[in-house]
Design brief:
The complex is a heterotrimer of chains A (490), B (100) and C (642). With 490 residues, chain A is mainly alpha-helical. Chain A has 21 helices and two strands. Chain A has a domain of 217 residues. In chain A, helix 10 packs across helix 14. The two termini of chain A are 26 Å apart. With 100 residues, chain B is an all-alpha fold. Chain B is built from three helices and no strands. Chain C folds into three domains: 284 residues, no CATH class; 229 residues, no CATH class; 70 residues. Classes of the chains: A mainly alpha (490), B mainly alpha (100), C mainly alpha (642).
């Protein structure tokens, strides 16, 4: 099915927006913000047009790019990419709406954010592996600058660490990609970089292992899997609110999406043989991340460590290689994006008011600023998987599926549910309950209208996914089933 | 009779003077002139060879080289003047700003 | 028609929550409270209407079912928001909404002056909704949703006065301890799905019965035993059994109506509900049943011993609740499912009554809870006094009050059971009954008779509670008096509740074998024995505490009283052996992350730095060095080419 290029439009409209914002006068922050918001919302509206993508690739676009090596500009979406694209398009306007704390450099902030959106949407739409790689790397640059320019005290260290880690993973991936292109040429005599074509390759087991390892390193760093996770807390803590939200909501998903879309289908046998080691790391991530979160006294760091734990859960869902678990993994990717994104948004709101992030710098938040406190409580509950909210659905699917194929890992990960309740609730208790710990903490303003509007879609999503996940499951299901079918699991 | 070899000899001497000048002198301006000297020795070889082999291409090379050299002199002198303004010296040993 | 009414039963409380939340600015407090009460009363009436059409009244209709919407679908999973009202869930729904309504009305008075009045009723309605989802849900995930939902409400309501960090801490403790149990439940759910391929409760239990009939699952099947034990772990958390009972006494930090509704009458019986619901599993797993009976008996015994020396009026009742829940599990463990459910019902009557009575006392004394500082309240609080008195009789289990019949049914089946285990737990139950009577009347004596020991603050507003509070007390007192009539002893041939529930437990009893019918004189003799024990205990306490606390307990000073005073040091044991190591692991993880993993990362970076430092020596900024190296290189190249 050919289309009028809607995916390209969704991908590059933000870039156009960035260009427009770049040429607006920096003296007037309102105009800058309004323009960026306009582009963000327009893009969100456009992205809703693809909402019915399900089992097969639709809205296909294909143009020659580097014909000598069969590289194409190929875009399409299915039930796996669709929700991630929409989530990316949703997150950006939310961030733009809450940029009131950015003083100087608002223009750069907005420009970087919009460029970032182009990269994120592009990654999820690309059907050509070189194009995927280009977008994958494109996301890196704006975020590097967002952290490095707008971050906290240690921003340079954090930005550098983030960049080096990711670049370190990207290079083996590039090698793996080029190797695959070469293999395809050897096997068929035709150059092609289309993921579909590369999937048709029948590589022997040893080769697959190398290819998988090359991809896995890049994606495992992005996820991040233990022990490659230490860039994440630093990046999160130092990043500005918007950077943290993008990082948590979308960037980490590039890793798990990469596994599902690229690494596993391109090296199906290796996906099986690597399942156990990957699952071991995933379980360690779940439990270790939870304990790590418990040890933190800094709100942002706590949320960042909880991300490690939650993403380990997603990896369990993916590598259980089971239809239920894969559905759960996809849902959990979205859930983590929504819940953790919301948590970072709220932590950002709190930080702006107090310029502190310690768990013990507040107290009685529910009383002092009720809306903010209630929002924090609801989001925490969603994060620990309370039934009725989004987290539970994903966790249940993952566990039900994983228990069939990998019972030991499933049981171990289930204990992460318990730990999640501990660290989240003690955070809620120390921040939201009790009495304000100091004079400043007793006089925090409540959520502004803009903040409420930014938060509202996220909380709606929490309830919607929690109570009526059918809409998403209908679309995700066929897509993951087709990938699993190709892996030899149905 | 002056043969092409003589030109080569002269050019070599010029080049040696330039190279030694560059290595031994401390004044940036003089060093710069030494560089020009080396460049021109190369030009001399080009022109002489062109003449002896009767190839116009060599002369063309030399012309391009002269043009580039002219541009380079402009930029180079500008840098030296800026440096002098900045450091009030033209001693190359004192100018080590690009130390790693 | 029934389907729609069934849907309404559960939708009304939730709708009420939504309405109250979004209109909390405009709704007057009074109206909000009335809406909240109505949202519990209407489901009660609807349940009566729908429930009349099933079970013993209409044997051809085993249950009414309804599906509100689909929920989790795909990948071989098919779970909807489906409701199923059968006799068992009907019994629970009636208790939850009936007692719940009375407590809502009571709260109108009790919470009258509280600034969080509206918030309170939102939480209470949310609790009722979740509890209904728990008992009406037709699938395990929906049961789990209600299960966690009531846990959430319990958490929110325990920490209702969250300005005091201790209350918030108690709420957190309740949630976390419950989560330990929930983990067991979750794992049981995973195993059930793997074994039966479905999460529909009726399909699972029917599947197990059918599987047993076909020989797939033998008696004592390891897999079924494991599932039953995991389910019981969940039940232990929710119903405060050993070793997970520690949260319940702390939960008394919440407002007293909460203690009555959630931590006495309804939520804590969810574990009983679950075990009763999955009774076939337990019937097929004698080991699991034995564990249930032993844990129940031990909890009953241990909590009763702790209750003997508590000073806080609510704490006595809290430990008493643990103890009575232990009775119910004892009953379930020995196969007396019907008796256990009967005890749930009567316990809901008299324990709600006692808690509300205690609340009335606390309300009158301006939030004084220490029974040592009460005494002589009989003339000041006449209605509270006589209703509480009735509650004491019922709790102690004295004929003909409600508690007597239900407790005696359980003890009878245990003591007359086969083997050595059942009589053993029965004897433990009998000793517990003695202690129960003792601490109950000790509490009564300390609070209502003897000299007044009130301090000035408590005395200031001493008054009988308003009608909104006393009318529910009177109704509950009447239920506590007459509730035993629901299920009279076997020889009376009058057993409404038992007949109504019979189809539910028939499969389990078919597996385990129907309990033997005993001769009338044996049963009567047993009743007389237990009655004598109970009256003895009550009489002892009655005399002992006639003039105030006096010398506390008639126990020698020394180890045992010390142990009881400190609640067997269970909290301390947890702190040292569970919380401490886990917290230590967390700190260790933090340390490891910072110094080992990040140490390696930064070490690698420093290594690169070091290499750079060596190489940078070459780049000294002096043009001459570069030129020399360059020329040397050029000369080398030329030479090597020549």
């Amino acid at each position: 099915m050919n289309s009028f290029g809607i995916l390209s439009l969704i991908t590059f409209l933000p870039l156009l927006g960035a260009l427009v914002v770049a040429f607006l006068p920096r003296e007037n922050p309102k105009v800058l913000r309004a323009a960026a918001l306009l582009f963000g919302l327009a893009n969100l509206g456009l992205s809703l047009l693809i909402v019915n993508a399900a089992g097969t690739m639709v809205f296909v676009e294909r143009l020659h790019w580097i014909p000598a090596f069969g590289v194409c500009y190929g875009m399409a979406v299915d039930g796996i990419s669709m929700p991630l694209v929409i989530l990316s398009c949703l997150v950006v306007p939310i961030i733009i709406a809450t940029t009131f704390h950015v003083g100087r450099g608002l223009k750069e902030y907005l420009v970087l954010l919009l460029i970032m959106e182009t990269g994120m949407v592009g990654v999820f739409c690309a059907t050509d592996i070189i194009l995927f790689y280009v977008f994958f790397e494109l996301t890196l640059v704006p975020l590097y600058f967002l952290i490095g320019m707008f971050g906290g005290v240690n921003r340079i260290y954090a930005a550098f660490k983030f960049f080096l880690f990711t670049a370190f993973g990207s290079l083996p991936m590039l090698v793996a990609i080029l190797f695959l292109l070469y293999q395809h040429h050897q096997a068929t005599g035709v150059w092609s970089a289309s993921i579909e074509d590369l999937r048709a390759l029948r590589l022997d087991a040893a080769t697959q292992n190398w290819v998988f390892a090359g991809f896995a390193l890049a994606f495992a760093i992005k996820v991040p899997l233990w022990p490659l996770h230490t860039w994440l807390p630093d990046a999160h803590v130092q990043a500005p609110t918007g950077g943290s939200i993008v990082l948590a909501a979308i960037m980490l998903k590039l890793g798990t999406y990469g596994f599902l879309r690229i690494a596993m289908p391109l090296a199906p046998q290796a996906a099986h043989s690597f399942a156990t080691p990957v699952l071991v790391l995933a379980v360690i991530s779940v439990i270790y991340g939870a304990y790590l979160a418990w040890a933190q006294d800094d709100l942002k760091k706590l949320v960042a460590c909880s991300s490690v734990s939650h993403m380990g859960f997603v990896m369990l869902g993916l590598f259980a290689l089971e239809p239920l678990a894969a559905r759960g993994a996809m849902l959990q990717m979205l859930n983590h994006g929504v819940s953790t994104g919301a948590l970072f948004l709220l932590v950002g709101c709190v930080y702006e008011r107090r310029h502190k992030r310690g768990l013990d710098d507040f107290g009685g938040l529910v009383k002092v600023s009720p809306a903010l406190g209630i929002a924090l409580v609801i989001t925490s509950l969603s994060s620990i998987g309370l039934p009725g909210l989004n987290g539970f659905v994903g966790e249940l699917f993952i566990l039900l599926g994983a228990f069939k194929t990998q019972p030991v890992f499933a049981i171990l990960c289930a204990s992460g549910v318990l730990l999640g309740a501990i660290y989240m609730l003690q955070m809620v208790r120390r921040v939201c309950y009790g009495t304000p710990n100091c004079e400043e903490a007793a006089h925090l303003s409540d959520m502004s209208v803009a903040e409420k509007f930014a938060f509202a879609p996220l909380v709606i999503l929490m309830f919607w996914i929690g109570l009526a996940p059918g809409f998403l499951l209908e679309r995700i299901g066929p897509a993951v089933d087709s990938i699993l079918a190709a892996l030899g699991n149905t | 009779m002056i043969t092409v070899v003589d030109y080569y000899v002269v050019a070599s001497i010029l080049f040696a003077i330039g190279a030694l000048g560059f290595l031994l002198r401390k004044n940036v301006l003089v060093m710069f002139m030494s560089v020009e000297l080396m460049l021109n020795s190369a030009n001399l070889v080009l022109v002489a060879s062109a003449k002896s082999f009767d190839l116009a291409r060599g002369s063309a090379f030399a012309l391009v080289s002269v043009a580039v050299a002219a541009a380079e002199v402009g930029v180079g002198l500008a840098i030296i003047i800026a440096l002098f303004r900045l450091k009030a010296t033209v001693d190359a040993e004192e100018i080590t700003n690009l130390r790693g | 028609m029934e389907e729609n009414l069934l849907e309404l039963i559960i939708l009304i409380p939730f709708a009420s929550v939504v309405v109250q939340y979004f209109l909390h600015r405009v709704l007057p407090a009074r109206l909000a409270g009335l809406i909240a009460c109505g949202a519990v009363l209407v489901p009660f009436l609807l349940t009566v209407v729908v429930g009349r059409g099933i079970g013993a009244a209409a044997p051809q209709v085993p249950a009414v079912t309804a599906t509100i919407a689909s929920w989790l679908t795909g990948g071989g999973l098919e779970v909807a928001f489906g409701l199923r009202l059968d006799p068992l869930s009907c019994a629970w729904t009636l208790v939850v909404t009936g007692i719940g309504f009375l407590i809502h009305v009571y709260s109108l008075g009790y919470m009258h002056h509280d600034p969080g009045f509206k918030r309170f009723f939102i939480y209470m309605n949310l609790f009722i909704g979740s509890m209904l989802a728990l008992v009406l849900g037709d699938s395990l995930p929906l049961l789990f949703l209600g299960w966690e939902g009531v846990g959430l409400c319990s958490y929110l309501l325990i920490g209702f006065w969250f300005e005091d960090m201790n209350n918030a801490r108690a709420g957190q403790k309740a949630f976390v301890v419950n989560r330990i149990g929930d983990l067991g439940f979750l794992l049981a759910m995973l195993m059930i799905f793997q074994t039966f391929g479905t999460l529909d409760i009726a399909a699972v239990t029917n599947g197990l019965s059918a599987g047993h009939a076909q020989g797939t699952f033998a008696l004592g099947d390891a897999r079924i035993t494991l599932i039953a034990l995991l389910l019981f772990v969940g039940a232990c958390g929710k119903s405060a059994q050993l070793p997970l009972f520690v949260w319940l006494p702390d939960a008394m930090a919440g407002p007293t109506p909460v203690s009555a509704l959630i931590h006495a009458a309804t939520m804590v019986t969810a574990g009983i509900y679950m075990v009763a619901r999955f009774s076939v599993f337990f019937a097929l797993a004698p080991v699991a049943s034995a564990v249930v009976a032993i844990v129940g008996a031990l909890t009953a015994f241990v909590s009763a011993t702790i209750a003997l020396r508590q000073r806080d009026i609510k704490k006595v009742l809290a430990y008493s609740t643990c103890s009575q829940l232990g009775y119910m599990f004892l009953g379930l463990g020995v196969g007396a499912y019907g008796a256990a459910v009967f005890h749930v019902v009567t316990h809901a009557f008299f324990k709600a009554l006692l808690f509300l009575g205690a609340g009335s006392v606390i309300h009158a004394l301006s939030h004084e809870q220490n029974a040592m500082k009460m005494g002589g309240l009989k003339p000041h609080l006449p209605r509270t006094h006589w209703t509480f008195f009735v509650g004491c009789f019922a709790l102690a289990g004295i004929f003909p009050f409600a508690g007597f019949f239900s407790k005696d049914k359980i003890l009878g089946e245990a003591l007359l059971g086969h083997g050595w285990l059942f009589p053993l737990v029965g004897v433990l139950g009998l000793i517990t009954a003695l202690m129960t009577a003792f601490y109950t009347f000790r509490l009564y004596r300390l609070v209502f008779t003897g000299p007044e020991r009130l301090d000035a603050h408590a005395k200031k507003h001493l008054h009988e509670s308003p009608a909104t509070m006393t009318v529910p007390l009177v109704i509950l007192a009447l239920l506590s008096i007459g509730g035993g009539a629901l299920s009279l002893p076997a020889f009376a041939h009058f057993d409404i509740l038992g007949d109504y529930l019979r189809p539910i437990f028939a499969p389990a009893l078919a597996v385990a074998g129907e309990a033997a019918h005993h001769a009338v004189n044996v049963e009567v003799a047993l009743m007389l024995v237990s009655l004598a024990v109970v009256i003895g205990g009550a009489w002892w306490a009655w005399n002992r505490f006639a003039r105030g606390p006096g010398d506390q307990l008639p126990l020698p000073q020394g180890g045992l009283p010390f142990l009881l005073e400190n609640k067997w040091f269970v909290d301390e044991i947890y702190a040292i052996f569970v919380v401490g190591p886990m917290r230590g692991t967390a700190l260790l993880a933090g340390f490891f992350d910072r110094y080992v993993i990040d140490g390696i990362v930064n070490g690698l970076a420093r290594l690169c730095d070091l290499c750079g430092a060596v190489v940078r020596l070459l780049q000294n900024g002096a043009v001459h060095t570069y030129a020399l190296l360059f020329i040397a290189g050029a000369v080398y190249l030329v030479c090597s080419l020549l």
